[in-house]
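The protein record now logged underneath.
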Amino acid sequence: MPIFLDPQGILLFDIPLFLFLFGLLFLIVRLVFRQYDPILGTGIAAFAGGAAFIIVRSQFEIQRWLWFNQSIFWGLVVLVFIGIVVYWMLRV
């Protein structure tokens, strides 16, 4: 049973956390498989989406901690985004 059933909790917490974890897992697995085809890319996206959904719905203590410390959560989102941008800029 999820902690937050109200629409505000889903909009402010579940969806951003899912997108953050999906993107993070997708990039990590994508970096492992440098030469991949579209079918493998679809599999990576499915894995990342499933894993992110399970993490969002099962980690109650992490959810509660992040919910009450939202500035830390958004700080992590911004840091990961900056890290990805810097990585891609240095790679080119």
